[in-house]
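Quick start: read one record
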Amino acid sequence: NTFGNIKNQFRKKLLSKNSKKVVKTVNEKDQELEIEEFLKPQINSLVKRKIVKKFRPKGVSKDYEHWLNLILNECKKEKFTCLFLDQPNSYKNDISNELKERLWMTPPEQNYTLSLEDLILTSNLYNKWLEKKVTNNKLNFIPLSEKIEGKISYIFDDCHFTEKGSEEISKVLAQYINLNLKSILN
């Protein structure tokens, strides 16, 4: 079932063996219930939420631009090597119904949703803006969204990766580093 799969992925990501040592007052069952209480009303948001708002930004948010510029400036100081990746996601015109039912960040904890078309446009806007900004600054960029398919085997909801998706990301990163090792280290 859709909710069970999402809950299992969250459990894997959030409930490590070390979490019991860090937060002694919350046990695994309580954490599972918190995850379930948060997610259950949110999944399938494109269908459940009856109010659809239009959102067509002309550019990225000022906060995003500000923080990215700070990061870029630090990277250009050449104290360390920076590698930027854009964000793969499930927002595609050909999204499967099974994956579409798992969407919940449309946005989360709201009584409305954005249309799939607006989600696609917004995610593409941010990914393309990041790519242009990074490449204009002559820094390392990987168009990860072009390499990781928006399929349920790689992404289990809007933008969180399955184990197979994480493995694919590792392969893409390793391949990039191997091919560009000299330029990355210099």
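Residues 16-25 have pLDDT under 50 and may be disordered.
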